[in-house]
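Hey everyone, long-time lurker, first post.

I ran two proteins through the pipeline my lab uses and got sequence/structure pairs for each. Pasting them in order. The first:
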Amino acid sequence: MHYNILVTGIGGNVGQGILRNIKSMNGPFNLIGTNTSLISAGNHLCDKVYKVPYAQAPEYKDALIRICRDEKIDLIIPSTDAETVELAKMMLELPVTAVSDQSACSVFYDKWETALVFEKLTLPFAESWRPNIDTPKAPLSETIVKPRVGRGSRGIVVCPDTLEGFGPEYVAQRRHVGKEITSSFYVTKTGKVLGPFTFERELQAGTTVLCKVEKRYDPVLAEIIKTLVKNVKIKGSCNIQAIVEDSGGIIPFEVNCRISGTNSIRSQFGFRDVEWTVQELLLNEEPHATAFGEGCAVRILMDVIYPDKDISDVLDGHTPHRIF
């Protein structure tokens, strides 16, 4: 028996990491990829690829339902925040989908709403306010402005000269200086929390390029996660991004309610959230976490070479290629 798994957003490092992790399981899986561009770096990892509209487009829903029907999809794993929100709304019309409750996906998609939830639960979080609506909570020299629903560090302005021109689609936060960490956890169907698993990291253009396993912050993070899981309907993989100040204080500033970009790296240290997702939602097996390893990782660029092919000839993993 073969299972058909649909992975969205295969043009990005999150989707490609998910695909690589599933392939490493060596299971009876057919991998169907979707992306807003027909040709991307994820094509070679898929058995078939479809181009889809952006998640917010009116045509997205029908396009995804049609793909699921035609390919007899058994499990959907999204890799972008916008798609988690839309897929959570469509749950009753789709195969099994690796998303949290719609309320959780919507809250964590919006950085302002995320700040309000942390405030309500009296959890630490970067002081946040809406530019030109709320009273600023930090001087401009200590302010960072972000799109409320942005991703990948797009549209971020650090220490702006003025807040004029930033509308209600933006959120401002106090800019905390220190080490950036990303901490992942997994909530099983029975409510058990696996993790946290934490990297201290460096980023380029919003993507982790250098990281090391860091366990000393986990006791504090575990308490934050415990409160979140008790009050917000989180299922499956989730990720907290935070700054560790020189004083040792841990200040979260964003939550990704999905499998996040370091999934391919952290699986090599024992935090196998992609594998657990497949085990739990597709194979009906209970996921188990063993002790997480120590170490570090550096991300590199590699090339997918298609000899004697035009770009229009590139389809999926069946198109002859080599990795260099």
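...and the second, right after it:
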Amino acid sequence: MNLISVDIRMLRSLQCVAETGSITETARRLSRSQPAITLQLQRLDVICGCNLFRHDGRKMVLTSDGRLVLSYANSILRLHDELLSRLSSPDIEGQVILGTPDLYAAYLLPSILAVFQRAFPRVQVQLHCSLSTPLVGQVHRGEIDIALVTRMNDFIGGRVVRQEQLVWITGEHSTAHTETPLPLALLPPGNIYRDHAIEHLEVAGRSWRIACVSESVSGLQAAVFSGMAVTVLGRSALVSGMREIVASGDFPTLPKVDLLLYKAQGTTKPAAKALYDYLSHYLDINREIGAVVMPDMREPESERPLNEG
């Protein structure tokens, strides 16, 4: 039997081009030349017997065959990286304190932390859920080892590892989005999700009122599920029982927000470095393609955006 071997670097290039849509940016990120990246993708096309990308203007986008190959590539690369980490650091142990808002603890981190625990079974991760602003203060003071937070306007430092698209969300059978003034369920003052929601409604000339203030995503979800309010969250938090409101004059398109990863400056713990590297890698490579985040828990009916009105 004549077996075909796929170079792991080909899969890495495929994954990066799928994320960036650009040979140039992929070459920069992977420290390779543009012709080398192009050649790798051409060889992968030949091996697969199909075109994995097509051009959409100046951007490269996956074909249906490309999406299938990428799904396997993501799994292969995850296992490859997990194996190398496990073999290179078998003796790492200790406790790491990871701080993050409960939104990310629930919808971004579970599958990544599961991979980390398999690779480093002797490391204990203590999860500390709080709002982004106090977490940044805690990591700067060395009270926690690592923080994954939403970038606020006054934050300094940190590494951008992901972007979250903000969306308007209402209950699956709710009519709250049609009410005047619009009832809102929001995080406390000083949070950028809240700031963007209010700012965009003000620009649109839409009247609003606060129906719920909660420091946790569970409180916002309760207000949405009950039909008492509309909220603004990252699209990854859209679950069964919720619907996204299609952008319109009354509900302007919201921006993406940056997720920052911090590590306490003075920490020398190998366990903290290992977790920081894992989070940097898995959150970054899935910034757009979302291959190692929580599975989509939405039911088919909840996946359809809801037109305003």
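Reply from user beta_strand_b:
Welcome! Quick read of the second one: The CA atoms of residues 240 and 301 lie 8 Å apart. Confidence is low (pLDDT under 50) at residues 285-309.
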